[in-house]
Amino acid sequence: MKKIALAAALATTLAGATFAAQNVAINGAGATFPAPIYQKWFAEYNKLHPTVRINYQPLGSGAGIRQVTERTVFFGATDGPMTDEQLKGAPGILHLPTVLGGVVPIYNVPGVTQELKFSGPVLANIFLGKIKKWNDPALTALNPGVNLPGSDIVVAHRSDGSGTTYIWLDYLAKVSPEFKKTVGVGTSAKWPVGVAAAKNDGVAAIVKQTPGALGYVELIFAIQTKTAYGSVQNASGKFVKASIESVTAAAAAAAKAMPADYRVSITNAAGDTVYPVASFTWMLLYQDPKDKAQSKAMVDFMKWALTDGQKFAAAMGYSPLPKNVVDMEMKTLATVKVQ
Amino acid sequence: MSRFDDLGFRAGTGLFGVLIIAVVIGIAGVLYTDSTAAISKFGWQFWQTDTWDPIAGDFGARPFIWGTLYSSVLALIIAGPIALGIAIYISELCPAWLQRPLVFLTELLAAIPSIVYGLWGIFVLVPFVRQLEAGTPEWMKALPLFSGPPLGLGMLSAAVLLAIMIVPFSSSVAREVLRAVPQAQREGAYALGATRWEAIRMALFYARTGIVGSIMLGFGRALGETMAVTMVIGNTPQISTSLYAPQYTMAAVIANEFAEAADELHLHALVEIGLVLFVITLVVNVASRAFIWSLGRQARPRRARHATAPAAEPA
Amino acid sequence: MRTSYRKFMSHLVVALCAGAVLLALVPLAFILFYVIKQGVTAINWNFFTQMPAQIGDPGGGMANGIVGSLIVTGLGALFAIPIGITAGVYASEYRGTRLASAIRFAADTLNGVPSIVIGVFAYGVAVLPFHHFSAAAGGFALGVMMLPLVMRTTEELLLLVPASLREGALALGATRARAVFTVVLPAALPGIITGVLLALARVAGETAPLLFTSLNNAYFSTDPGQPISTLTVQVYTFATSPYPEWHQQAWAGALVLVTMVFTTSVLARVATARMERMQRGS
Questions:
Q1: How many angstroms separate the CA of residue A58 from the nearest CA in chain B?
Q2: Cα B283 from chain centroid?
Q3: Which residue has the higher pLDDT, B133 or B274?
Q4: Are residues B226 and C205 in contact, defined by beta-carbon separation less than 8 angstroms?
Q5: Would you say residue A6 has pLDDT above 70?
Q6: pLDDT tens-place string over residues A8-32
Q7: Residue B183, Cβ neighbours under 10 Å: how many?
Q8: Diameter of chain A by CA atoms?
Q9: Chain A within 8 Å of C127 (Cβ-Cβ)?
Q10: CA angle centred on B111, ends B110 and B117, rounded to 5°
Q11: How far apart are CA B203 and CA B168, in angstroms?
Q12: In the predicted model, what is the mean pLDDT of chain B?
């Protein structure tokens, strides 16, 4: 009995190890913002190349940055670009944009079926705790004809280090100087009000389950959970809902003037059709990693993701990258050491 | 020849024992070395400030201590009497045939994994509590204890869930403690015409230190509970006496932020919280075990005297 | 005090205590009822053989999580059993020594350490230096949690073995090592096995220490050097998601987990009772 158990244990370990020897298993962690498209990509890529298994764990952008810095994972993913301070801890790391997405205000207001309009300053004041009720004059002014109740607004935000948070705070700081001073911009914050949950999934879950809740998530999470999301007033004064077109429009200006390290913010961009809370999302790869087999596999994957992979993006509500950004990236990928 | 064998045996097995000690010291060591940046920067201020601001690099852990203590004390208030009641019933009152099934059932409660409690908490307890909170009469809502929007997620859900989790733990230890009360004591009480309650009261008084110890052990367990709590408490670092307010515990903040604290100070601040959690649970557990052992020592001499001079022992 | 008052108080207390028992059993029934009711609809053959489905795709299972939990718990046992049993032997053989007291104190302390703190420790010791999340690191964390349980069970059961057995072996000329390992330990084995199985059941349900050691894995993996999916972490991920299909899967996972834990506990006691009867017979 004991011998059989021992033999079984040895066999399983050997089987596992043998797989590892023949195939490439890569581990990555990071943002939940692009997690749905990344997981689709890795699954599709694995179908095309069965020997490459990329295991991505959506833990939040903060985790992606930290784990790739400590090299406990091979690649990271974030929607909040690394700060200069963080870059010092990870010498040789590259930011590589993969798709564009938008962060939307999701809400659960019982009795309200119409789509709500929000402006930047109003959202900032809600998240500062200055606007407390749904029928506050600022909200009713933006939404005439909608019967907003007098109940409390339950603000929902992230409890973990999040690029989605970064994008949201980046936008609010641009439209509200008070918000910038009181809260600031980062992957986590000292939130003046609200309940917290981990990951985009968690915030979506809270909003869906709590009457009167208002939160922020990446567009795909609102669509997949069938939660109502509102339009946001952009820099030109128009109320725009997040969509592939409006997010693509947000990146138009930045695409023409993309910095070499790809760290750029496109929130509150100018333009009539622009969605103001949009952002690139980045993969974090080392230029000269130790494991060259994994490096080659990742570079090949990235090349596929930037070309064939982009067509999966639209089906999931993400905007594909502008062409000149893709061209720039291909050149950057060529500098990554694969042997 | 055999002396060396015995020496080898002693050294060999002793080494493995030392390994366990090494693990404990290792835990304390790792916790200390990975928190030095936060300790040196904040010192005692860490435990007196309320701001938890990862962007500004300003960390104060008072809300977490508050959340941990408040939730555990509340859980104890709810669970203590129940655990005691169960212990008394099983050890003193129930018919013999019922004892084993009841013990089995309470141990079943203890065997349910924490994540399952959390799952049940999110989908069953929290909506129920939310309805309860929404239905609170206005005069109660005015009290600070019941103020705040009806979220469901918050201190009340966490305390109730914790209470359910620690009941089997405390009650099984209390049961053991009551078993250590010498039968002679009970017989003496009945011989003097005591009712069942009076005999139980005497046993409780006799075993009081052990009972306190069993309650404290439950408290220690509640202090460290992570998964179930973080799924229902709302995860907001604020100090509030309201049962309806979402709050945060030390274990929950570590679970949520540890994997991703992207800068060293944040990470060290979290590990420092872990270090303090380690020390607090250590102190509570040691104290509770001391209480329980002292009962054992109290019981033994009497039994010895009883064995040698039954007639001389006063009832 | 009047007799009728005293009698009333006595009856009241009896009723309250019985009430306490019922009060504790109510949540037990509630929780088990919900887990079974919600989970059973998603349990089918697929659940045990398939990977989790993508968001939006129905079905799928937790095959990788179930196997992963078994592997990680098994690795933990591999760590905890040799160390725990041997340390327990020392603590019982050399009872009065200071080292034995220190070991006992350390084990009791370890038992009370919150599982999240053990996770932090395991991250610092088994993940960071190797730059790798791994099933082995998760196994190490669980093993550390099992250590005190195994050690204490071994110690207490060895003490229960009648002294005559040990003395008889020694009288026949056996060394202490031989006496303990070939005579005393086997006599205590049924109880020790119960203890080990109970410890396994206890740690198989842990989530917190696995969050930053074995992480999670989207694929089916048995490699101890790679991250691995476990039932508990998977249930946590699905439970905190906003998708109803995943919530269903979470309940199913919880049902499987609870069944595994309960069956192990019950089997442990039944097997022990049987072994004891056999031993007494021979």
A1: 11
A2: 12
A3: B274
A4: no
A5: no
A6: 556 555 555 555 556 889 999 999 8
A7: 10
A8: 76
A9: yes
A10: 80
A11: 21
A12: 85
d(CA B220, CA C114): 9
For residue B51, report the phi and psi dihedrals to the nearest 5 degrees. Answer: -80, 135
How much is the pLDDT for A187?
80
pTM to 2 decimal places: 0.86
Candidates B24, B200, B268, B278, partner chain C, best to mutate (most C CBs within 10 A): B24
> What is the separation of C-alpha B124 from the centre of its chain, rounded to a whole number of angstroms?
24
State the pLDDT at residue B313: 37
Instruction: Output the DSSP codes for C153-217.
Output: HHHHHHHHS-HHHHHHHHHTT--HHHIIIIIIHHHHHHHHHHHHHHHHHHHHT--HHHHTTT---
pLDDT in tens, C89-113: 999 888 888 999 999 999 999 999 9
Neighbours of A287 (CB within 10 A): 13
Domain ranges of chain B: 34-312
Q: C226 vs A221: CB contact, 8 Å cut-off?
A: no
- Per the CB < 8 Å rule, is C222 touching A13? yes
pLDDT of residue B64: 94
What residues have CB less than 8 Å from B248, skipping those under 6 apart? B63, B64, B67, B233, B234, B235, B236, B237, B238
Burial of A45 (0-12, 13-18, 19+ CB in 10 A): buried
Chain B positions touching A61 (Cβ under 8 A) are: 260
**Does residue C14 contact residue B197 with C-beta atoms inside 8 Å?**
yes
What CATH number has the domain spanning B34-312? Answer: 1.10.3720.10
User: Which residues have CB under 8 Å from B41's CB, separation 6+?
Assistant: B265
Rounded Cα distance between C57 and A92, Å, is 39
Residue B299 in this model has a pLDDT that exceeds 60: no
Phi and psi of A75, rounded to 5°? Answer: -135, 155
* Domain ranges across chain C: 65-281
- What is the Cβ-side half-sphere exposure of residue A59, based on CA atoms within 13 angstroms? 31
Query: Regarding the domain delimited by C65-281, which CATH topology (the fold level of the hierarchy) does it fall under?
Result: MetI-like fold (1.10.3720)
- Token match 């407390």: residue? A132
Would you state the torsion angle of the CA atoms of residues B272, B274, B280, B282, taken in this order, to the nearest 10 degrees?
A: -120
ipTM of predicted complex: 0.89
CA distance A185 to A180: 7
